[in-house]
Amino acid sequence: MTLPSDMTAIAIAVPGSPEVLTPVRQAPPVPGPADVLIRVAAAGVNGPDLAQRRGHYAPPPDASPLPGLEVAGEIVALGDAAAGFSIGDRVMALCNGGGYAEYVAVPSGQVLPIPQGWSMVEAAGLPETWFTVTQTLVMRAGLKPGMTVLVHGGAGGIGGAAIQICSIVGARAIAVVSSADKADYCEEIGAFATIDRTRENIADRVMELTGGHGADRVVDLVGGALAAVNIAASARGGHILQVSTLEGANATVPLRAMMARDLTLSGSTLRPQSAATKAAIAERIRSDFLPALATPDWTKPQVTTFPLEEAARAHAEMESRHHRGKLVLVTAFGAGENQS
Ligand SMILES: NC(=O)c1ccc[n+]([C@@H]2O[C@H](COP(=O)([O-])OP(=O)(O)OC[C@H]3O[C@@H](n4cnc5c(N)ncnc54)[C@H](OP(=O)(O)O)[C@@H]3O)[C@@H](O)[C@H]2O)c1
To answer: Which of 106, 218, 227, 279 could staple 240 via S-S, CB 3.0–4.6 A?
Structure first.
């Protein structure tokens, strides 16, 4: 196809509230030698996009200043050194930025095929959270069958990825939620049990549910006072993975309890990882998880859609914390597609 001279994208006019997300017209990106150019059907909305919009998460110097860390769509151009894909392939991709747009250039190592049976809109909500959880829970913390994993924010994007990765691996996810409705959702997508943090003691419930063993792994995006709760809920030899600090970047950590239980606490952010690391994560997802996602009875995470131009409304919805699963922005191309 002939590429257009300009496209719609969503820019951050100035740091601030959702209204600063502004539709603009600009030239499509030019793919580098190892990139593919994707005509975007849909772009997932993620917690880090909110932080970037507020001015708290600057993009790396070589990345697009536009928000958007994941997309699904169709490949329309390839750099000379881009390997493994052809023009016309329907793909999903982890972007380095720039996903809130009608076209985005992505290193080919961060691109994956869309699982059989998934629409482009459904697939657009997978990469950012599945890359994050694969890198931390699977590759760093060695998730194994039979482990119990405490998953905070179970009904959100990261939480849903953690629950589903546990179910593929044969681990048991205990999801922390704030309502009965979110608890039902977490069970639908594969959680073994749920804890309502508004009325239950998290550490006590984990011990009850595991017969006093505790959680072998914890995926935490809350931080603050939960640091001590995570330690109290952990099994001997456990590993707590800090992927965000929504309630507080600083915490009082009971070090003796950590020592007594042989615990590891590690933190990570995906975006600044090297292209080689992101490509290695993609390969792990392709080999270990894509086959399960393509099975006909797989329960896909819930997706709520917004037109690309209404990105501000999607951010406001995410900030309200009413959503379950993923929020996804759909372009004119995505809206016109036969979706499965
Ligand atoms: N480290 C990384 O590489 C990485 C990658 C992706 C995302 N993240 C971070 O992970 C966090 C979650 O991202 P997401 O896309 O999963 O977001 P999300 O879909 O909004 O999910 C967040 C979940 O956490 C729960 N939560 C508990 N305490 C919260 C609080 N104080 N503020 C907001 N939510 C709270 C919310 O449900 P309830 O309030 O109902 O419990 C919600 O279900 C974000 O901070 C994001 O920046 C980190």
So the answer is: 218
